[in-house]
Amino acid sequence: MTAAGSSDAPIGGHQPRYWEDIEIGERVRSAEFEFSRASIFAFASQYDPQPMHLSDESAAKSFFGELIASGWQTACVTFRLMVDAKPLGSTPLVGLEIKELKFERPVRPGDRVHAEGEVLERRASKTRPERGIITMRVVTKNQSDQPVLSALWVAILPTHLAASPP
Amino acid sequence: MTAAGSSDAPIGGHQPRYWEDIEIGERVRSAEFEFSRASIFAFASQYDPQPMHLSDESAAKSFFGELIASGWQTACVTFRLMVDAKPLGSTPLVGLEIKELKFERPVRPGDRVHAEGEVLERRASKTRPERGIITMRVVTKNQSDQPVLSALWVAILPTHLAASPP
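Structure tokens for the assembled complex are given below, as produced in the milestone run.
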């Protein structure tokens, strides 16, 4: 996958970030990705081989009446854009749970999407002091700034204790 | 993607099914899919290029200490297995929302997973009498029958009114 444009993430970087460093309200905006017909067909043939994603002809007769991308492709593209935006610096994005993954609008060939993330919550792990948990709202928007996918990501990351054990 | 084994879905088939036909408690079990190293690397390089998914060497130094599949790959594989199991017959699986997508356990190279679905809820659309909504619990399990991913899928499908407009 190649992304067009560049990330203007204010909170990225090449250093690891720890749970205590993350602030409620932090925002990140990813680069853009353009959905080509070929990428829609390629994803669908592997993971979502249904009429509305496989060809213009079969899509025209489907529920949607036109070719659209699999919602799972949009979710995976969103994840890739966020990994590249590095909201946690060099600390990996490790998901515990995704809450409320909503398919808000269809994505069509030629649509260009980006993702916007915001940290909503930060809580300590009840059992493991070397780990902490954050919740981010991640909204994927098209070139008209309309949401096409939204989700709450619950992610786990190391605390300072993990970096410098006592 | 190729799936090993065959679906023993009791509720599939080649005819369309409508919202009124779906019963609470209906179950479906998909075929199996085996995660190869190659498929883990291929998915990760496109959608989740992080150390724990890209090579044995980088994974050994990661949070998990070993190579694991991207949780998004498991989610996409689960969707494909369910599409092939045809719980709605020839009516497509169209998601409105996924709730509580939980990454329960890592998936490792050689793991064989299948998906089990159960219809939990059926509700009418408040605004469109030609459409209805169902909620399914979908649990993805490995070869030891341990859950690796679980989710609630909220899907939309046509009612009898859509099939035979007045």
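Residues 1-10 of chain B have pLDDT under 50 and may be disordered. Residues 15 and 44 of chain B are 36 Å apart (CA to CA). Further analysis is deferred to the final report.
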